[in-house]
Amino acid sequence: MARLEEQVGAIVRHHRTRAGLTQAQLAELIDRQPGAVQNIENGKAGPTFETIVRLVRALNINAVELFQHGDFVVSESANDTLVEILQIVSALGEPELIAVKALIEAGLDLRRA
C-alpha cells in the first residue's frame, strides 16, 4: 500500500486532469507555486490544511475524496482500461449509469452462458 502522501497526490492528479487543468493552472487557482502542486502529486509533500481547502474548492470535490485509499488510485495510468472506463462513466447522470450497469450485467450474463 502506498504512503498517504502518494495516495493524496494520485487523487489530486486524477481530479486535476479530469478538470482539464495543468499543474500551473491549478497552482494559480490555489495560490501556490507550480512546484508545490508537482510535489503534492508526486507524493513528495503532503498538502497543508489550507491547501486542502483550496484544492477541494478549485477541483470541485469533497475533502473526503482526497483521503480515499486503494490500489486503484495509486496504480492509475493512462493505459489502464478500468481508469478509462471510469473516466467515461464519471460524467454520466444516474439514469445513464443505470443503463450502463444493465448493459454490463447483460454482457457478463452472455459470457457466463
From TrEMBL:
Transferase among keywords: no
Presence of keyword Oxidoreductase: no
Signal peptide extent: none
GO CC annotation, single: cytosol
InterPro entries xref list: Cro/C1-type_HTH (IPR001387), Lambda_DNA-bd_dom_sf (IPR010982), TransReg_Diox_bact_type (IPR050807)
CDD domains: HTH_XRE (cd00093)
Domain HTH cro/C1-type: 12-66
Record-linked Pfam families: HTH_31 (PF13560)
Keywords in alphabetical order: DNA-binding
Single annotated GO MF: DNA-binding transcription factor activity
Protein name: HTH cro/C1-type domain-containing protein
